[in-house]
Amino acid sequence: WQCFRALCCKGPPPPRPEYDLVCIGLSGSGKTSLLSQLCSESAENIVSTTGFSIKAVPFQNAILNVKELGGADNIRKYWSRYYQGSQGVIFVLDSASSEDDLETARNELHSALQHPQLCTLPFLILANHQDKPAARSVQEV
Fold first, then answer.
1. In this predicted model, what pLDDT tens digit does every residue of 87-131 receive, in sequence order?
2. Which residues are annotated as a binding site?
3. Is residue 33 part of a domain?
4. Which of 26, 82, 87, 110 is the most exposed place for a label (fewest CB within 10 A)?
5. Which residues are annotated binding-site positions for GTP?
6. What is the mean pLDDT of the chain?
7. Is residue 3 part of a domain?
8. 7, part of any domain
9. How many domains does the chain have?
10. Rama region for 15: left / alpha / beta (φ>0; ψ in -120 to 50; rest)
11. Which residues span the domain enclosing 56?
């Protein structure tokens, strides 16, 4: 009886802390694929995000609520509207992109790093697509 009581009366496990992150980068950089992979979802039929999406990424000791913002030209100007409340930033970069796209990504990264709502937050810069032949090394990026 005591064994049963100990099991049933334990209560739910303590809640895991949650952190709100924003995930930004140009279209095609791999933001959606990254989040799908972290959520153990199928990588098939991934479509570029138009606007934004939110995914809860569970880890053993925490949950990351990630706001993924679309990276198309006409959407990037609205990124800053979604920054409020963020506690960290993931910037995804296509390391195999053209020089022009790399320059655009650099400008967007610098803009995010200087934004008042993001400038004090931790940034993860992910050099994605390292498996492609045209990929630049992390040092080059």
1. 999 999 999 999 999 999 999 999 999 999 999 999 999 999 999
2. 25-32, 49, 71, 128-131
3. yes
4. 110
5. 25-32, 71, 128-131
6. 89
7. no
8. no
9. 1
10. beta
11. 18-128
